[in-house]
Design a protein that fits this description.
By secondary structure, the protein is α+β, with helices and mostly antiparallel strands. It folds into 2 domains: 154 residues, Ribosomal Protein S5, domain 2; 133 residues, Alpha-Beta Plaits (2-Layer Sandwich), CATH 3.30.70. The protein is built from 9 helices and 12 strands. The strands form 2 sheets. Strands 1, 2, 3, 4, 5, 6, 7 and 12 form an 8-stranded mixed sheet that branches. α2 packs across α3 and α2 crosses α4. The longest helix is centred in the middle third of the chain and has 23 residues. The protein is globular and about 55 Å long. The model has no long low-confidence stretch (mean pLDDT 97). The structure holds adenosine-5'-diphosphate, (3R)-3-hydroxy-3-methyl-5-(phosphonooxy)pentanoic acid and magnesium ion. The site of magnesium ion has 5 residues, from α2. Pathway: Isoprenoid biosynthesis; isopentenyl diphosphate biosynthesis via mevalonate pathway; isopentenyl diphosphate from (R)-mevalonate: step 1/3.
Length: 303
């Protein structure tokens, strides 16, 4: 049995706009998905979602990874077991983490010798196939770890303050939210185009602020980014309520992370205010995860 793991992520800036080629800044976080693989006669995929064979309804990402390996190896059967700390369909990159950890686990089992860049590329192809339109952000960050600016693939300084996540526990499908933004953009290109460019500008302006650890200014930009995410229709009442609760209780800034429409928001906060921010989000009805940035990307855990 070989076990590999990959981290989840939060966006400091730029989700959705990054699908249109705008820059984004994304940060790997210390909650992980673990995938164990071993030889078997047929394909079995087991997770909290159920136990299946190749099945594009229940396990689309993992099924697509297996099909991809069948193109480059003589893979017939394999047993795949997924255990994840990352809530599914929540904006924390569960799809990227399960995809990348599965690729690394199969690469290790089958001895295909993929480099990290190959793993990230294959992961992106899988996300594009399943999600429709997908940026390289989640799969790249979760492969490499750390804080990364996309599309430059430039590593920024690790975030050195508290990260508090508030989960609405409202399931949201990234594929659907990305399609909704595309529809809005088709209806009102003159209005939505500039909003997407402004979201991209957050990363351009924010890059130096992240590297100089000016989290007061990073937080202000995150708040502006949140307003623009609301403008493109990916907010919801719960996400707004949690972001205001965080900001009113000591956070530098707070916004949706990932696709939105439900899922999670993220606040950055001084470490001494993390408990206050967490309590405020919980009082507003959120499920809280306190975490940290991590520079540990995909890795083998045991064999
Ligand atoms: N632990 C897991 N086990 C199996 N499949 C998973 C797991 N986590 C995520 N997935 C897959 O990823 C999908 C959610 O991806 P997506 O809509 O992009 O949301 P997220 O924001 O969490 O990445 C799930 O429907 C499932 O297909
Ligand atoms: C909305 C988007 O920018 C991020 C989606 O992240 P998540 O799947 O919600 O964790 C889509 C993408 O970049 O592919
Ligand atoms: Mg996803």
């Amino acid at each position: 049995m070989i076990t590999c793991s990959a981290p989840g992520k939060v966006y400091l800036f730029g989700e959705h706009a990054v699908v249109y080629g705008e820059p984004a800044v994304c940060c790997a976080v210390d909650i992980r998905t673990r995938v164990s693989v071993g030889p078997a006669d047929s394909v079995t995929i087991s997770s909290s979602l159920g136990t299946t064979g190749i099945d594009f309804e229940t396990h689309p990402y993992v099924s697509a990874v297996v099909e991809r390996f069948r193109e480059i190896t003589s893979l017939e059967g394999v047993s795949i077991r997924i255990v994840s700390e990352i809530p599914v369909g929540s904006g924390l990159g569960s799809s990227a983490a399960v995809t990348i950890a599965t690729i690394k686990a199969l690469d290790t089992l089958l001895g295909t010798g993929l480099e990290l860049d190959d793993i990230a590329r294959m992961g992106h192809e899988v996300e594009q196939r399943i999600q429709g339109a997908a940026s390289q952000t989640d799969t790249y960050v979760c492969t490499m770890g750390g804080v990364v600016m996309i599309p430059q693939r430039k590593g920024l300084d690790l975030i050195d303050c508290g990260l508090v996540i508030g989960n609405t526990n409202i399931f949201s499908s990234t594929k659907e939210l990305v399609a909704n933004v595309a529809e809005l953009n088709e209806s009102f290109p003159e209005v939505i185009g500039p909003v997407l460019s402004s979201i991209g500008m957050m990363s351009t302006v924010g890059e130096d602020l992240v590297n100089s650890k000016d989290y007061v200014s990073v937080g202000k930009l995150m708040n502006i980014n949140q307003g623009l995410l609301d403008a493109i229709g990916v907010g919801c009442a719960e996400l707004s309520s949690f972001t205001y609760a965080a900001r009113n209780n000591g956070a530098y800034g707070a916004k949706i992370t990932g696709a939105g429409g439900g899922g999670c928001m993220v606040a950055i906060a001084p470490r001494e205010r993390v408990d206050d921010v967490a309590a405020a989000i919980a009082a507003a009805g959120g499920e809280v995860v306190v975490t940290e940035a991590t520079d540990i990307g995909v890795r083998e855990e045991s064999r």
